[in-house]
Write the structure tokens for this entry.
Amino acid sequence: MPKRSLSPLHRATTHWSTGRRVLVGALVITVLLTVAGFAAWFTNRGEQHAGGQRSSAPAPSAPADTAAKPSTGTGSVPAPPKISDPLAYGRAAAVMLWSYDSRATTRDQQLAGMNAWMTSETKYTDWTAVSRQVPDPVLWSRMTDSAQHATAAVGEAQFPSAFKQALAENPSALTEAYIYAVTVTGKQTIAWKDGGGGAEDRSVTLAVQCRPGSDCALVSIAPSVAP
């Protein structure tokens, strides 16, 4: 059984919804655009968006089943921790994103559990990017038939060096939205019935919101940047 065909949940996405990308980018642009990976990504997405506006073809949209916020149980998905440290929250969020159990959790429950980690500030939350980590219903059904499940262990969580430098040069840059870039590395172990399985190293850069005096929350999955 090909491992990658049954484990799309761990794949990071670079597709933020247009409205959320523009808003978040505008609010923290003085910080995030100093990070090379973010800068290249924002530029590329901006050009694509501009090109789409000039074209008569409609822009692609996310499937309704992943874009809609679910309202069911959460199955095996852990509840978000109540912590105010963006690095600690990033570590916990990475474990959540890289872990799943199709034996005990439906696809809707997986979505609902992940949605609980998102910021409640609707003008920032990029649910589309996070929900796209969940396989489509057909593939999830195949995963269930194969009893596929995954666990994760994280290693380092850090702010990319360019991100830290930008904050040092302009400490007030994040005081509008308090959204941090957090890069997490670790390992995902996948298993299915009949003894199948394997492990792979993982790395993801998350956008995490941590307002002073409040618990952190997930904003989006961001492009990879150099640590």
In short: Residues 4-55+63-222 form one domain. Residues 1-19, 21-71 have pLDDT under 50 and may be disordered. The chain is about 35% helix and 20% strand.
